[in-house]
TrEMBL record:
Pathway: Purine metabolism; IMP biosynthesis via de novo pathway; N(1)-(5-phospho-D-ribosyl)glycinamide from 5-phospho-alpha-D-ribose 1-diphosphate: step 1/2. GO terms for molecular function: 4 iron, 4 sulfur cluster binding; amidophosphoribosyltransferase activity; magnesium ion binding. The gene is purF. Binds 1 Mg(2+) ion per subunit. This is Amidophosphoribosyltransferase. GO terms for biological process: 'de novo' IMP biosynthetic process; purine nucleobase biosynthetic process. Pfam families: GATase_7, Pribosyltran. It comes from Sphingomonas metalli.
Length: 485
């Protein structure tokens, strides 16, 4: 099968995108629009749950938002003025309909639907304890742990039960919860995963990125703060902060790759930050060349910044086709290899005889970079230099990003020379961690807590990693994966 973006097969993938709306007669339709804008954050499955004042209604499906939520009969099956949506790329649990969110349960306090972006790093330990106490899990998703913690809490009100549940979990989460009383949106105390709030007439809207607000015509109000819960009940909105305050550490990779370039994240234009990363890269790793070429599409802003800073012309040396279907049957290795060119092809007339600088956002396993460099050489490039708009990815992420185990990360296995040889480039360079922070207008100092979660580059994890450190839990997870796959 040829995926939508063959060059993205070797990318870090965000786990999910979430969207919620309260107070609109077109709640489900708005949720579908919002999920379209967040499709890049999860392409395996999508779901929407609505509430009509009496009943909850859910439609969940494998695949993209388009084709599943662009039919009138689907939207009509989701009545109500409140709705929450989710797009998924799994990092925990198998790819199956039972793991597609929002997850729903009937609790003693009434219906409870939850959409989650992030990853609970002690989910397996909590799951083991909950099962021992009698909980029966219906999915393999870490998100279901939250439902069982709420259901088994000894507190009386739903809000107190929810807070009690969140105080027991570790890791990263942005959540949208629907109950008969209203909607709750919240972020973990470190604010690792993003969540913003907007308005559309009388409706309140929450989304993983501001672009989802733009697409549905809403006005951005502010980010949901780290450790904050925003509670919407009819026309009443209130905010509480039930957790001990800590210094936030949002995921720095949002600005490198995850967020759409037309989003605003943490008061920064994602597009502008990526251009500045490219400029920093040009300062740190200059090279004599004829063309700066982006690896589409994520490398484009950084390539523009590199070209502007270096004075080397920016050109589209790799042309992407937008008209290839999601699947393509590939009967053999030769056809499978050629299939990549259906989506991306070298601009041969431009490249032949030229010294080119390829700009990409990251190197994970290195397999994609190898193919791209070879594509340039096959097109007649005289020299191929690779520049990467992030530091080397040497560590796995445990906060809602699908990262290969560390042994499969190219930068964890090889030094710079070894990586250069592996991808067959004439030279290779990464932006430094200091350069990345400079692009965000900050400095990373070794003597103070960093402003962002940059653990995939530095190994400096901002939370404990209970499941990862507990070998018995890791073994249980492996056994669970074998049973469900």
């Amino acid at each position: 099968m040829l995926t939508t973006h063959p060059f993205d097969d070797d990318k870090l993938r965000e786990e999910c995108g979430i969207f919620g709306v309260s107070g609109s007669d077109s709640a489900a339709a708005l949720a579908a629009l919002g999920l379209h804008a967040l499709q890049h954050r999860g392409q395996e499955a999508a779901g929407i749950t609505s509430f009509d004042g009496h009943l909850f209604h859910t439609h969940r499906a494998m695949g993209h938002v388009a084709g599943n939520f662009d039919r009138d009969e689907v939207i009509r099956s989701l009545p109500g003025t409140v709705a929450a949506g989710h797009v998924r790329y799994s990092t925990t649990g198998e790819t199956a309909l039972r793991n597609v969110q929002p997850l729903y349960a009937d609790l003693a306090t009434g219906g409870f639907a939850i959409a989650h972006n992030g990853n609970i790093s002690n989910a397996m330990k909590l799951r083991r304890e909950l099962v021992r106490r009698g909980s029966i899990f219906q999915s393999t998703s870490d998100t279901e742990t939250i439902i069982h913690l709420v259901a088994t809490s000894n507190y009386r009100t739903l809000l107190d039960r929810f807070i009690d549940a969140l105080k027991q979990i570790e890791g990263a989460y942005s959540l949208i919860v629907m109950t008969p009383e209203g909607m709750i949106a919240c972020r973990d105390p470190l604010g690792i995963r993003p969540l913003v709030m907007g308005r559309l007439d009388d409706a309140v809207i929450f989304a993983s990125e501001t672009v989802a607000l733009d697409v549905c015509g809403a006005t951005f109000e502010r980010a949901v703060e780290p450790g904050e819960m925003v509670i919407v009940q009819g026309s009443e909105i209130r905010s509480i902060k039930p957790f001990a305050p800590v210094s936030p550490r949002p995921c720095i990779f949002e600005w490198v790759y995850f967020s759409r370039p037309d989003s605003i994240a943490g008061d920064h234009s994602v597009y502008s930050v990526r251009k500045e990363i490219g400029a920093q890269l040009a300062i740190e790793a200059p090279v004599e060349a004829d063309l700066v070429i982006p690896v589409p599409d994520s490398g484009v802003p950084a390539a523009i910044g590199y070209a502007q800073q270096s004075g080397i012309p920016f050109e589209l040396g790799i042309i992407r086709s937008h008209y290839v279907g999601r699947t393509f049957i590939q009967p053999g290795d030769k056809v499978r290899h050629l299939g990549v060119k259906l989506k991306h092809n070298a601009n041969r007339a431009l490249i032949a005889g030229k010294r080119v600088v390829l700009i990409d956002d990251s190197i994970v396993r290195g397999t994609t970079s190898l193919k791209i460099v070879q594509m340039m050489r096959d097109a007649g490039a005289a020299e191929v230099h690779m520049r990467i708009a992030s530091p080397p990815t040497r560590h796995s992420c445990f906060y809602g990003v699908d990262t290969p185990e560390r042994a499969k990360l190219l930068a964890a296995k090889l030094d710079l020379g070894g990586m250069t040889d592996f991808i067959h480039a004439d030279s290779l360079a990464f932006v430094s961690i200091d350069g990345l922070y400079k692009a965000l207008g900050e400095a990373r100092r070794a003597d103070i807590r960093p402003s962002y979660c940059d653990a995939c580059f530095t190994g400096d994890y901002p939370t404990t990693l209970t499941d990862q450190d507990d070998t018995s839990v890791v073994d249980q997870f492996a056994l669970l994966a074998e049973r469900v796959n």
